[in-house]
Amino acid sequence: MKRIGFLSFGHWGNVEGSRTRTARDSLLQGIDLAVAAEELGIDGAFFRVHHFARQQASPFPLLAAIAARTSRIEMGTGVIDMRYENPLYMAEEASATDLISGGRLQLGISRGSPEPARDGAAVFGHVPAEGESPADMARRHAAVFRHAITGAGVAEGDPRFGGGTGKLPVQPNSPDLARRIWWGAGSRATAVWAAGQGMNLMSSTLLTEDTGVPFDELQAEQISMFHQAWADAGHQHTPRVSVSRSVLPIADEEDRRYFGLSALREKRDQVGIIDGLVARFGKSYVGEPGVIAEELAADAAVQAADTLLLTVPNQLGVDFNAKLLGTIARHIAPAIGWQPKWPASAAPGPEASRG
Q: How many CA atoms lie within 13 A of 46 on its CB side?
């Protein structure tokens, strides 16, 4: 395990117990948690993108703000629904954000997931072409976006206004960003496709297939197939692979109050139906830090990946989640082969709390 990061869904709502009552709370606390995570030596700050919901929806202002407040931590998405995106405008936003960060942006993209809106992408002005499915449209948008961020020309120049006679690229351009695009793959076949395209693999706690084996073994098989397909495609650089896990250590009475019941009911895989497909959901890791360390060390997919994204209960606020990440960094992550890549403070500093 080379890197660990947190993954926040950015939930907010004026409900009992929530410390993110408003969208502003969620955004500002996302920035502050990234700052605190960097102080702890955590490698990445990632955010879920979900439209028409009280969650993070427009990631680039948030990621750019994190880039301006930090100097070492990666920031990224898990994942952007490409059905919704204007790919050329997204290329401009992503490149600008990456330049602000000094090349620390890691963008997870995908075809999207079930959502509150019946046909939200159409409301955004994106409708599949004739004979094209929404998933096809998402992949088409992704291809245009990935082409644009290489600096390739995409628009005819107008010599009357200094555009020359060739094709113009979008500006600004961040030359290395193309290697830091990840595809959120929900199946083994999709992972093989992503490898062929030359994208990194982002695999979550859900796979839209079930072969009867434990989730971590199915996901490890997905990762193995991705690496084989990558080698077969002949790409010249080493890909990255991330998996997501819900890791909730119980280290004090506050943790026990929040997660004690979860420790009894969420320690096994679940199988259900999503988008009409049988899906297997990975279990949560809840309990004493030492026990979780042993369980994660035995997780086949965690061992096969190079990056572990830890889903955080963001509505419990910055201070609580910084404490949670600190417990994981000190008492759990070393068991899966992780060490901080820069000196980590024993606890988050004063920048880590905001409302």
A: 29
